[in-house]
Amino acid sequence: MTSKHPYVYMADQQINPLLICSICQNPFVDPVTSEDHRRGCRACFTEYLSSQSVAVTPIQEWIVLEMLNSLLVECTKCNENNIRRGDLKQHEEKSCRRAFVLCKAADIKCPWQGVREELDTHVKQCVFEPLRPVLAEIIMENKQLKEKIDRLEILIKKFTERN
Predict the structure, then answer these.
(1) Does 118 map to a domain?
(2) What angle do CA 65, 67, 73 make, to 5 degrees?
(3) Angle, alpha carbons 10-82-116 (nearest 5°)
(4) pLDDT tens digits, one per residue of 64-89
(5) CA-based, 20 to 30 A from 43: which of 97, 118, 139, 151?
(6) What's the Cα-to-Cα distance from 143 to each of 2, 71, 109, 129, 153, rounded to whole Å?
(7) 29-66: pLDDT as tens digits
(8) Where along the sequence do coiled-coil regions lie (predicted)?
(9) How far is residue 12's CA from residue 21's CA, in Å, rounded to a whole number?
(10) What is the CATH number of the domain that holds 66?
């Protein structure tokens, strides 16, 4: 079965068979157990056993979860390897070269979107970033005006309800 996760496991590590999902044949992700003691990934149970309406409960033993999060994986976006599975989300958010990101000036309406490794090139030519001080002031004034309009609309509504 092909992996539905944004990583692949490093081949040279021994993975305890008790940590393997019986459906996807990979180490558990969000592990659950069924009433009949089958163990697997929550997504696998949901997808493959939905017609059987099997009730599941989370496996909460921290040692099992820590063992699973310690497994080494390779990011399928940038191919960096030997990342702890538990650190993959942080890798994607902070350092993955192929992760999809927005411009640092997205908060002031720069529409650029792309992969992290192209961000520095974009920032050097971004027309929004040099305008940040002026745009930030305009955006703040706009927000304050909207808040004032909201307050005035409430006052108008109260006034018209009384009369």
Answers:
(1) no
(2) 105
(3) 115
(4) 888 889 999 999 999 999 999 999 99
(5) 97
(6) 48, 47, 15, 20, 15
(7) 889 888 877 888 888 888 877 767 667 777 777 778 88
(8) 135-162
(9) 19
(10) 3.30.40.10
39, part of any domain: yes
Amino acid at the residue 55: A
Tell me the C-alpha distance between 32 and 19, whole Å: 11
Rounded Cα distance between 8 and 1, Å, is 12
Domain containing residue 38: 8-95
DSSP for the chain reads ----SSEEE-TTS---GGGB-TTT-SB-SSEEEETT--EEEHHHHHHHSGGGT--EEE---HHHHHHHHTSEEEETTT----EEGGGHHHHHHHT-TTSEEE-TTGGGT---EEEGGGHHHHHHH-SSGGGHHHHHHHHHHHHHHHHHHHHHHHHHHHHHHH-
CB 81 within 8 A of CB 7: no
Which residues, at least 6 apart from 78, have a Cβ–Cβ distance to it below 8 Å? 96, 97, 98, 99
